[in-house]
Design brief:
The protein has 87 residues and is an alpha+beta fold. A hairpin with a 2-residue loop joins strand 2 and strand 3. It has a domain of 55 residues: Arc Repressor Mutant, subunit A, CATH 1.10.10. The chain starts with a helix and ends in a 5-residue tail after the last helix. Helices cover 44% and strands 13% of the residues.
Length: 87
């Protein structure tokens, strides 16, 4: 039975599977996001969603409505990280 399984590539990956993945140096770098959801941004900044809400209520971060959710633009996040609060 093991010879039957190995013949199908179930025990050992086939040659095609090994070569189909691009090498790490050939992979495209991740493109920056244009906007983040509250969950994504909180995870990216390493803070809770409550802390994100506090930043918004203090005027340090602005969100934009997106259907029933809020999103945060990349420019707004970069401005927050630079410490330039809008006034």
């Amino acid at each position: 039975m093991s010879s039957r399984l190995s013949g199908r590539g179930l025990l050992h990956p086939s040659h095609d599977e090994k070569t189909s993945r691009p090498a790490p140096e050939q992979a495209d770098p991740p493109k920056p996001k244009l906007a983040y959801s509250a969950k994504e941004l909180a995870t990216e900044l390493g803070i809770s969603k409550v802390s994100l809400w506090r930043l918004e209520t203090r005027g340090l971060l602005r969100s934009m409505p997106y259907f029933r959710h809020k999103i945060y633009s990349r420019e707004e996040v970069e401005r927050l990280l630079r410490g330039q609060a809008k006034g």
